[in-house]
Sequence to fold (175 residues):
Amino acid sequence: MTSPPPGMSVADQPRVAGLGKLPAEAPWVGLVGDSIDGLLAEATDRRVMDTAGKSGARLESVRIDGAPYVVKYLDTDDDWTIRAAGVFGGATVLAWRKGLLQRLPACINQPIVAVAHERRTAVLMHDVGPWLFPVSDDPISSEQADRILDHMAALHAAFWGGGDELDVVPGMHRY
Fold:
């Protein structure tokens, strides 16, 4: 399991309607609920986020049990990346269902805590905004570049030699 950002604990999982408080260990990983309303039943302070995203997906800031989360709504009508990938519900959701995100190396924080799918999909994530690179054209430092390259190498090593279980986006949609 990946490490949460500083100040967050894997045990700080939200309560999800119908499931109660999610356990610190992750037997629920890969499960996709069938109710977005149920997923967000405990959410307060809901507000649409103004972001620099390019896919068309809508983001919403919420609080559950006082902790900050982000909900990403994946909808084929709004998100061109879902249509381009040819993966119903989105490639992120398929990677979640397959448990691929839990296989990420510890140096990569995977913030997803729960997923629900109806006609559209809602992905509930820890709010990791403070740890993201700012949206700008400013260069990054040599230290940041080195860390990114080290993390990319760890990612490749974790999945090196993987087979069909790694396929998320169909081959005909990759090129």
Summary: Strands lie at 15-16, 20-21, 44-48, 58-64, 67-74, 112-117, 121-126.
